[in-house]
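Dear colleague,

As promised, here are the two records you asked about, laid out in our usual form so they can be pasted straight into your sheet.

NAME FIELD: protein one
SEQUENCE, THEN STRUCTURE:
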Amino acid sequence: MRALDEVIARRLQTDVVLVGQVARYIITAGGKRLRPALLLLLCQALGYRGEQRFNLAAVVEFIHTATLLHDDVVDDSALRRGRPTANQAFGRPASVLVGDFLYSRAFQMMVEAQSMAIMGVLADATNVIAQGEVMQLMNMKDAALDEQGYLQVIRSKTAKLFEASARVAAILAGAPPELEADCATYGQALGTAFQVIDDVLDYTGDVSLTGKNLGADLREGKITLPLILAMRKGSTAQRALIEQAIETADCSRIDAVLEVVAQTGALQAALEVAAVEAHRAAEATRRLPDGPHARALLKLPTALLQRQC
């Protein structure tokens, strides 16, 4: 990870001062670096030790960071990881344009791997992520969104980059097609579980750890799995309360919504969905060569289920 940080710092260098300021502001904000860590872990598990693993791990982090910059502008978010978002600190135009810089820098770097397969995976992932963002935008304030529609969004918007990170590692390592497919399955399932837990924490998390207020997704008009399940499990009155909150983005009764989400068992039901995905990820590690990195990958899905931020 230190080697990754060195690549990131070097590739953020630019003669345009504002670009460097905004990019460093968000990249050094204390993110989990889970996607590049996944790529590096799988490279180690599959026996690949080449320098390209650091370059492509940085590519993944740049793509992810670009999506965060654009997300915060679209959502008009004020906080990320407990501090002002880049669009609050530097303005919306700077955030959008530096996001574009990070995307284009990522594509410059992926060319250096000289692999059409890797370029294809990352280009496809970037396109799917953008489509997922648009799907989420279309679903804003739509109380009719069901679990299948929700999963389609998060598998595009979040899990796709996990999947791509894992597949890139397999390609770098020259893994056979069936093992490459297992790695992709692992990444998709892990990313799906990660996002479901993230959405649960929006209703249960400690603000000091998550860096955002409870119910922040609802305030932004986002319909996530806890709300979908609460509407399914709740009484007619409870469903009507949540539907009204969703359709009007009215957060004046956020405490009542939080209470319904807790009372209906929606949070536990959402955790069970995440647990199914975590198990699917763990099963996908069976054909990895045994070793400390493979064992870490086996433990990671369960650890994600227990995260608090």
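NAME FIELD: protein two
SEQUENCE, THEN STRUCTURE:
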Amino acid sequence: MNETIPENPPLGLLLRLVHQHWTQAVDTALDTAGFGDIRPPHANVFTFTPPEGIQVSELTKLAHVRKQTMTQAVEELEKLDYVERRPDPSDRRGRLVFLTERGKAVRPIASAAGRKVDERWAQLTSPQEMEALRQSLRLLFEKVREDAPARPGAEPEG
């Protein structure tokens, strides 16, 4: 990473730059394994699609993206044979998204690449610092999620 950053950078900038480093490593591993057609917006589909399938509206909520963004990602992945949509047995109008065999092959590669990045970062700092960072970010995420006002148009939970 050759980026020049300000002396006292905003936390958001640091998070974005570190995330870009992690993402580039995963993208490189996927490309090397023959999955070079996967783009960053597709990551949410692979991350949040359970074996039993999921509706696009649920993927949207889990990934915190707009429905249009998620629908486009699912459509692209369907054309590339990473996912398929089938009727939802519990909702006549609904359709569930499932990973195909090709789609299921992506997760282990992405996970292994992510673990390598984690290991490298632990070498560059220390395992204790990485665990402290992980716990701090998890706690912050939980607090932010609890504190966040409902998005306009979002259905109330309950």
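A couple of things worth noting about protein two: DSSP finds seven helices and two strands in the chain. Confidence is low (pLDDT under 50) at residues 153-158.

Best,
R.
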